Amino acid sequence: MQRTSLCPRPRTRPGSSVHRSFLIASLLVGGIFCCCASASAKPDDARKGTDERQIFAIADIHGAYDELLAILQQVGLVDKRGRWTGGDSIFVQTGDFLDRGAKTIEVANFLKKLQQQAPKKGGEVIVLLGNHEALNLLGDLRYVTRDILAAFVDARSVDRYTFYCNDYSKHIRRQAVLRGEEPAAARQVLSQCQEQKAYGLVEYIDALSPEGELGSWLRTLPAATQLAGVVFLHGGISPALTGRTIDDINHGVAAEIAAFDQVHQQLLDERRILVTTHLRDILASARRLAEEETAAGRVISPQLETVIRLESSLLVGDNGPLWFRGYAKWSDEEGNAEMPAILAPLGAQRVVVGHTPQHSHRIVQRFDGQVLLIDTGMLKAYYKGRPSALEIRGDRLFSHYLGEAPQEISGVEPAP
Question: In b/e form, how buried is each residue of 333-343, taking b as 16+ CB within 10 angstroms?
Fold first, then answer.
């Protein structure tokens, strides 16, 4: 099978701790699937004439490549071959293009290609991080399906996977002997691993690494951007983040990813997380390391401090920009009270977010037009929704649904 462009041949040594640890996470947690290179998007005032340019935004794609291509064709941003035809328009994708859908890698390749093509025609494509991109970067692969992994399978995948099953089994045996226990569990782990036949998993994990083509690109994506007085991001700016600039948020998210990468590699090198690399166990191992450092009278590194507090961080915290759901859950009274204080420090008039699929499968405007919820459940097989795009023309807003004429957005939805 020919390898897709975001599926590089593994660069790390077979049997390395990086490969072992991620394999263990996928096998043991709920079954098999259970460098601060921050590319803050250009600040609003660095973009010439954004008030006059058309802006299109699309939310959660989740591997729905065909639907994405169709809606982009309908709004005139690409042709039938997926080439940029949007002129000087700006296209913002608000995150969650990974996971669930079978064509995840096709979507990632497509977005990356459009990022390169659009500037040649005077346009711009801004791809933002969502919580699912964050999960992948943190090694939480519970939403990665066999269909996604299939794109990474090549002629050596079976051999690589068999090697890692054997390697992990040997590690379990060594740990059992050190604890004075019977090593019978190692044989069971080997059998379970072999039965899963998760071919492509090793290659996918390698692609997600800081050096991998997919992982290195993901680490350049910002969490938020602001254009013509409109803030775009995946989850939202919670009251806890009021007063922080877009650059603050982007640099903060990128710094947390870089800190995690550094600590994660340290834990792997010290074989502290070979039993499992699920995020909660990585954090537990990091806390134990911090306790040991403190007991030994050593100063805990800033990176380790960041990781042991990751659960309340920008990257994975419920009030962080990738996970916040308040805009969809607040009552009208709550939203109308909170939004002015959130938007005023940014000099923004409204915020556009995805993350929470709308039950109506329509773009929803709330809080006197200060919030637009644009996740309409594009991956129909999972969310039963439909492809859509938001268009901003100066002060006017339009919704686009596949196969329908554009509709101007004027009304405000009541509380859910």
Answer: eebeebbeebb
pTM: 0.86
Element (H, E) at 364: strand 364-366
- CB within 8 Å of 204: residues ≥ 6 apart: 7, 141, 144, 148, 149, 152
Q: Would you write out the chain's pLDDT as a tens digit for each of its 416 residues?
A: 444 444 444 444 434 444 444 444 444 333 333 344 444 455 554 455 667 799 999 999 999 999 999 999 999 999 999 999 999 999 999 999 999 999 999 999 999 999 999 999 999 999 999 999 999 999 888 999 999 999 999 999 999 998 888 877 876 776 677 667 776 666 787 888 889 899 998 899 899 999 999 999 999 999 999 999 999 999 999 999 999 999 999 999 999 999 999 999 998 888 776 434 577 778 888 998 999 999 999 999 999 999 989 888 999 999 999 999 999 999 999 999 999 999 999 999 999 999 999 999 999 999 999 999 999 999 999 999 999 999 999 999 999 999 999 999 986 665 55
| Chain centre distance of CA 402 | 25
Nearest C-alpha neighbor of 281 from the set 268, 294, 269, 299 = 268
Beta-strand relationship, 407-408 and 396-401: antiparallel
CB 149 within 8 A of CB 200: yes
Q: How far is CA 143 from the centre of its chain?
A: 11
